[in-house]
Structure formats: C-alpha cells, structure tokens
Design brief:
The protein has 174 residues and is α/β, with parallel strands linked by helices. The protein has 6 helices and 5 strands, in the order αααβββαβααβ.
C-alpha cells in the first residue's frame, strides 16, 4: 500500500503490477493487486476510453444516382433452406432501394446483376460505395503487372474494371 501511494502513485493497476514484479520482486497477479487496492479504496487512475466512433461521411443532398452497396448474410428462410445473402443497393440521398436480390453466396455475378439492373432501370450511377471486399479491391500485397506499372495504374478486379470502364466512382465506406 505504501508503494501504491508513494513511489508508484498514479500508476494504473496493470502498470503497478508490472513494476512490483520488475523493480520490487513482488510477484502478484493483476487481479490480486486490483483486489488489494480496491479494498483500500484506491481505484485505477485511468478510466477506459469509450471506443472512437467512426466518422460518417456527408450524404448527397439530393438524388444523384449514387448507391451504397450492402450484403447481408442471414438465415432469411428461418431454417427452412440455406442461409442466403441479400445483395442490395440503397440510394445515398433518398434511402430508396433500387435493387435487392437473394443468392446463396456473395460473388462477382451477384454484383454484375445488381449493376445491370440499376443501369437498365435508372442509368449509370455516379458512384458506388462499398466495403473493402475482395470483389472490389485487389489484395494490396499483389504487385502490379509490368503493363500496369508502365500505365501508372493499379490492378483491378472484374468489378473494379467494370466500374472504371463505366465511369462509376468506386468508393469505400466503413
């Protein structure tokens, strides 16, 4: 108790436990040190910080044909069939849902069908927001080919190439 109130004053319980073992030769578990300190009314000085909330990007102020893509794997059939993925798109400005489709697995074909339907119904979107799924993004460790290096471009997946060729901005959301 003397060390906690004097030499190691202000140390949190974990750090205090480590110093007791390293500098003082007193080997106790962190939970034992915690229990002793709490019994004497000494709390850990550092409060746990709340996890940092992710920052949200601003939504488009009006309908501009920009979609957030989403995939939701779930037991949609409540045990009466396979688990399915809901592949969908949501208009960023209006929350309108121009596309939703169930399939067994998330794959390139599902995204191609989604883009085809949206383009035929509403035209080519300005942007598509998505997660960092490998369908959209090539493994960052993969080296670009010689042609890509000479052109100053990075490797693209099939979906990435389709978005590029259609002029659709390819954005990530968290």
């Amino acid at each position: 108790m003397e060390l906690a109130g004097d030499k190691y004053y202000g140390f949190n319980q974990q750090h205090f436990t480590e110093k007791l073992a390293d500098k003082e030769g007193i080997k106790l578990s962190r939970s034992t040190v915690r229990r002793i300190l709490l019994a004497q009314g000494i709390r850990s000085p550092q409060k746990r910080r709340a996890p940092k909330h992710r920052s949200r990007r601003e939504r488009y102020p009006r309908k501009v044909n920009c979609y957030k893509q989403t995939v939701v794997p779930h037991d949609w059939l409540e045990g009466r069939g396979p688990e399915l993925c809901l592949i969908g798109a949501i208009d960023d400005a209006t929350n309108d849902i121009p596309y939703a489709y169930f399939q067994e697995h998330e794959d390139t074909k599902g995204y191609m069908l989604m883009l085809k339907d949206i383009i035929l119904e509403r035209g080519i979107p300005l942007a598509l927001y998505h997660d960092r799924h490998s369908i959209f993004e090539v493994n960052p460790v993969k080296e670009p080919s010689l042609e890509e290096q000479l052109a100053g471009s990075k490797p693209l997946t099939q979906i990435g190439r389709l978005l590029y060729e259609l002029g659709i901005t390819n954005k990530f959301h968290k």
